[in-house]
Amino acid sequence: MKRLFACLALAGALLAGCSDEEDVLPDQQKRMESYLRSTHAPRLVHEQEIADEQLPCYSTAGNTVYRYIANRYDPERPARREVGERSSVRITFRAYVFSFANIITSGQSVTMPYYTNDPLLRDAFLSLEGFNPAGWSFEPLAIEMGRGDILKGLRLALLGCREGDEVEAYMTYNMAYGGDDFSVVPEQSPVAIFFTVDSVE
Questions:
Q1: What is the largest CA-CA distance in the chain?
Q2: The CATH number fitting domain 2-200, selected from 3.10.50.40, 3.20.20.80, 3.40.1160.10, 3.40.630.30
Q3: Which of 34, 161, 29, 154 is closest to 95 using CA atoms?
Q4: Which positions of the chain have pLDDT values less than 50?
Q5: What is the pLDDT, as a whole number, of residue 68?
């Protein structure tokens, strides 16, 4: 009898865990869309809503990655190389745990990323107590799009970008590190990665 109650309790705990996870994803999607449409500067609309107007907009990939390309309407952009499934890409990036609030990238109150290779933040990181620069590079990150060793959300955000693009990618936890803790990123955390596409081959 005790074994039966233990099994029922375990099953209940597992089902509760599934329910929590099922609630997290739609909540993060809803909050990201709300942030992009109301708090983000500039306020964004979904690309399907822009018709022929050149409004600041975001696109989605898989309903879990939200991408804003700041220079989307640059007249020279279509002539630049595009990131495809097998491209070799170099990017300069800043990665943040996303709290559904504006990320400040310049000025006195810069939001510090949990990881970056942006040389503009090199001195700020070197001044942090306990920061160990060994193994930390401030050179552009080389990514082979055909390999499976990059975050799913970053891969989706890169596809269709062009050389020189300045991109903000917001991703739900399942497109970042999933339900696991990763270094300083708590479990089920949404992530934002701001990056510049330095080169595409």
A1: 73
A2: 3.10.50.40
A3: 154
A4: 1-19
A5: 98
**The pair of three-digit structure tokens given for residue 66, joined into one six-digit string:** 């939200």
CA 167 from centre of chain: 10
Q: What is the pLDDT of residues 141-192, one digit of tens each?
A: 999 999 888 999 999 999 999 999 999 999 999 999 988 778 889 999 999 9
Phi, psi for 149 (deg, rounded to 5): -105, 20
Q: In whole angstroms, what is the distance from residue 170 CA to residue 167 CA?
A: 10
- Extents of the domains making up the chain: 2-200
Antiparallel, parallel or unpaired: β 115-116 and 88-97: antiparallel
Q: What is the mean pLDDT of the chain?
A: 87
Give me the pLDDT at residue 72, please. Answer: 97
> What SS3 class is residue 200?
strand
CB 192 within 8 A of CB 98: yes
Locate all alpha helices (DSSP H) within the chain, ordered by sequence: 2-34, 122-126, 152-158
